[in-house]
Amino acid sequence: MVSQTKAIMRRFIRARGKQGPNPDQAVSHWRLMCRELKRHKLARVSLIILAVLYLVALLGRFIAPQGLESYSSEYMNSAPSKVRFIDAEGKFHLQPFVYGLKSERDPETLRKRFVEDASQIYPIKLFARGESYSVFGLFDTDVHLFGVDEPGRLFLFGTDGMGRDLFSRVVLGSQVSLTVPLVGVSISFVLGLLIGGISGYAGGRVDAVIQRFIDIVRSFPTLPLWMALAAAIPPRVGVIEMFFYITIIMAFIEWTGLARVVRSKFIALRSEDYVTAAKIAGVSDMKIIFVHLVPGFISYLVVAATLAIPGMIIGETAMSFLGLGIRSPATSWGVLMQEAQQIENVALYPWKLIPLVFVIVTVLAFNFFGDGLRDAADPYSHENSLKTAGRKGKRKWTRRSKPLSM
Amino acid sequence: MDKTQQAAVDVAGQADLVSRPEPPVQETLVLEVKGLRVGFRTEAGLLQAVNGVDLTIGRGRTLALVGESGCGKSVTGRALLALQPKHAEVEGEIWLSPGSKGDGAGRALDPGRVDLLQLRPSGREMRAVRGGRVSMIFQEPMTALSPLHTVGDQIMENVLLHRTRNRREARQIALDMMERVGIGHAKRRLNQYPHEFSGGMRQRVVIAMALSCQPSLLIADEPTTALDVTIQAQVLELMKHLQQEIGMAILFITHDLGVVAETADEVAVMYLGRIVERATVHELFRAPKHPYTKGLLHSIPRIGSTQGRLASIQGTVPMPLGLPPMCGFYDRCPERIEGLCNRRDVPETSLTNSHQVRCFLYGGDEPREMSAEHRIEGLNKQDKEEEVIDG
Amino acid sequence: MADVLLKVENLTKQYAGEHKTSPIRAVADVSFEVMRGEVFSIVGESGCGKTTLGRCIARGLEASSGRVLYTPEDGAAADFLTADRASFRRLRKDIQLIFQDPYSSLNPRMTVFDIIGEPLRANFKLTRRELEERVRTIAEKTGLNPQYLRRYPHAFSGGQRQRIGIARALVTEPKLVICDEAVSALDVSIQAQIINLLKDLQEQLQMTYIFISHDLSVVEHLSDRVAVMYLGRIVELAPKGELFARPLHPYTESLLSSVPVPDPSGKRERILLEGEVPNPASPPAGCPFHPRCRFRTERCSVEAPELRETVAGRLAACHYAEELELEGVQHGVSGHTAIG
């Protein structure tokens, strides 16, 4: 039933074409895809979130007040600083400020804790001077996005057990956590395109061998596989190498899914009439692949890749969490979560779970964005091109089949 | 409470109709559609798929609804059984008269003459109508059959819903139906699944299902379009035969004029959501009036005739979006009268009792002389396409 | 006229059967000749192998065995299927195909200009200007507005898309065009436009058509000679007039009898076929048509009839072709629908 009602609609869409081409319909596939994507609210919001996250990662050292190495032993396990506008005397400050901190012992538990010292006011300054760092290895600077003057302290997300600023570590950790999946997916994208393409194009025995190999790779339980692979990594490697190794491990598992997408699309498209037409027209095989086949599924592959990213983020986090990935003092969100894994942290220092929020937000944002891409990838589908305004403009063309009593 | 009220309304409606000085033909009508309009709200505006359609089908008669894709013929067929998509806007009246066999098997609950549009689309009454009093068959038989159930179960399901509650009896009816639609070894095939049937056999199964409750109206939406000619001939023959046996009326929706000529008693030609011409099949094929009908009949190649060149209708069907009140065929019409056909809505003109046409060439509200004058003008504009009047 | 353009010899296309069943022969040992300048039609029901045959000839599909001898105007006949690279490059542009489905046969991601220009780019070395010139010319010839060439196919209606497909097939000025159900997917009024267009272009460009269709009325309207296919084989081949007037094969007869005639007064007795087309994976022994044939004898189920010349210039694959008195379509009966 659904297919039939859709068929009716399709007819109308075709009928719409019958009016003759009108100028705004002469747009390419990618343009149509962008147009559709813009309509997808959730995807739009997600894209903005992702853009902000990546911008922060890119400007990590500028935004983070503290570097990876620095710590302040006198401020261990400090709660997030309270950013204030109104001081103890009720006076309003245009510039936000924090109070100084002094440590004292809880008279009952004898635990060390920090209380605000209302007598010291440290205004938060934009472009404050702080630790010096090098900008992309070009020059050194000590300007940070914000900061407070010494000896004031600003811990937006509190500090960890070694007195390191958690905000800085989340920002710096995002550099690893957000780029590993990107690089990993890029590698698996190429691998998948290549191997999936060969599998789909060659067919026959080659296809069978590649498919069985993929089956084997996919049947590995990921956790032991990670552990085995991680064990193969030399124990004392630098952050960069470690990063490299993790990416390879992730990509090694991920490419199989993409290769499957490529292969099935390849096979589906190969039997399309327009491919046969190109063949009869005398177009060479290579040209057919790159002119007709690849553009036909590249959008689907982009979607598949986007939807693979959250898995990689989780994977990297999981590896670091298990202590298999990046190790302190270098950091990633997984490392931060590993550091927060003791029960006492959850009970006494709940701010240490903030990195988890970032993982969740990022994964969701990628998922929503991928969903939007997927919906947009097929701009010719009737659902998209003929969304009915319906009541409150919300109802889509998604009628469920109604049992026809006959 | 509600039901009695409804019944009262029904009776009132009936009384109202009876009191009108209508010819006695009225009594044998199975279906009477008045001013049916179906619209879809789209981003581009209201898409008026069906724009004021009037139809009547007499008992045991076949009305063919013909038109090209996008003319609204399928939407009309679906709207009759409230099978249109949820967001569609349907207006008009769809009167269904009681079936021929008021006493018939298990049809104790025949509620008399009802306006189907007043029923809730998926309410109990509507469900009783669907598959019971009115059945529908589609172009693609596989979509009407569940691949997970045996053919016998699927026919029986309908019988159990509408005719009897006794399984054994239902099975007997299903067997009987399968034999009647010409499926050999019915006993064995009853337990087979749809994929074990060929395309033509599947369509037979669908017909068996549709007719198992002896409906008074069968809506057949392109039932043979997906079939090969030899199979099509079999199925058409079968439908004709069963119609004589059961006495149901058929609304035959098709684009194939050959099939129309073979099956229909009356024909309604649809264009852009409206019926532009309605006549008995003989009248229509012998003396078509509307320029569109003429164009259609000219443009089909015929075996055995010595046409040199087919006369074709220029241009394509426009989209039924935001149509001004004018003749929908104006842009393609070789006989159009400028200043008239593109200015106002075309009313329907009755040429004879059984032949109506919606075209200013045959009257309308314009003075005759004037339209004749315009007509010559229009004829001069006619394309150089030869008028091929058979060979 | 008696100039053979294409000679198909014992063309066979097999598909491996599933689950170790015997291979399916979609096209079984088909031979025929196509004359220069004629319209040669192949008719049959779905699954009879006519589309496969057309694609094998155009090398859209690789045939399993057989030869397709093509004779260019100025040269000797060469096997189109096994031609070496160099000569195939020369011949390629001469044989083109028009597809049935105007939707799936055009790449939605290419502009109309690129679609029509593709065969030119693949076969000729042309400057941008020459390419544009030739695409423009063929677009005008096929009734496409050259202003719309930068649009994508989805902006066009079915009829216009079919014109694009025709333009693509004809842009290399082929000698032989295979029209694979080229008008079947179109509405009646559009179908007439395209049929007229195909006829006009044939005259203008002096092409030969192999017209593949299931629609006998269209075939009768267009063709010079007709081959009827059943289960991968040609069962009858004859000039159009003779075939329609007096078929020699019982299958042709029932096919003709099944066509609905658009004339309500011309009702006639129909010869209804029993049953349906057998599964090509296990064709019946003997004559493939015998289980549905009303004239079948013992011999038919044992001995497969060969396609032989029964009457001068006519071929039929039936043991009793000479004896049977089969009914065709009488001229005039169905044509009379005085309109006016």
Question: Explain this structure to me?
Answer:
- The complex is a heterotrimer of chains A (406), B (391) and C (340).
- Chain A folds into 2 domains: 104 residues, no CATH class; 213 residues, MetI-like (MetI-like fold), CATH 1.10.3720.10.
- Helices cover 57% and strands 12% of the residues of chain A.
- With 406 residues, chain A is of the alpha+beta class.
- Chain B is an alpha/beta fold and 391 residues long.
- Chain B has a domain of 95 residues.
- Helices cover 34% and strands 20% of the residues of chain B.
- Chain B starts with a helix and ends in a 10-residue tail after the last helix.
- With 340 residues, chain C is α/β, with parallel strands linked by helices.
- Chain C is built from 9 helices and 12 strands.
- In chain C, strand 7, helix 6 and strand 8 form a beta-alpha-beta unit.
- Chain C is globular and about 65 Å long.
- The two termini of chain C are 39 Å apart.
- Chains A and C meet through helix 1, helix 9 and helix 10 of A and strand 6, helix 3 and helix 5 of C.
Put the structure in a nutshell.
The complex is a heterotrimer of chains A (about 400), B (about 400) and C (about 350). With about 400 residues, chain B is an alpha/beta fold.
Explain the layout of strands and helices:
The complex is a heterotrimer of chains A (406), B (391) and C (340).
Chain A lengths: L1 H17 L10 H11 L1 H18 L1 H4 L20 E3 L5 E14 L6 E12 L1 E11 L3 E9 L18 H37 L1 H16 L2 H11 L6 H32 L2 H8 L4 H37 L11 H7 L3 H6 L5 H24 L4 H4 L21
Antiparallel strand pairs in A: 1-2, 2-3, 4-5
Helix pairs in contact in A: 2-13, 3-5, 3-13, 5-6, 5-8, 5-10, 5-11, 6-8, 7-8, 8-10, 9-10, 10-11, 10-13, 11-13
Chain B lengths: L1 H18 L9 E14 L2 E14 L3 E5 L6 H8 L8 E8 L17 E2 L8 H6 L4 E4 L3 H4 L6 H12 L4 H14 L5 H4 L9 H13 L5 E5 L7 H18 L2 E6 L2 H7 L2 E6 L2 E7 H6 L4 H9 L49 E4 L2 E3 L10 H14 L10
Parallel strand pairs in B: 3-8, 3-9, 6-7, 7-8
Antiparallel strand pairs in B: 1-2, 1-4, 4-5, 9-10, 10-12, 11-12
Chain C lengths: L3 E12 L8 E12 L3 E5 L6 H8 L7 E6 L7 E2 L5 H8 L2 E4 L13 H12 L4 H14 L16 H13 L5 E5 L7 H18 L2 E6 L2 H7 L2 E6 L2 E7 H6 L4 H9 L49 E4 L2 E3 L24
Parallel strand pairs in C: 3-8, 3-9, 6-7, 7-8
Antiparallel strand pairs in C: 1-2, 1-4, 4-5, 9-10, 10-12, 11-12
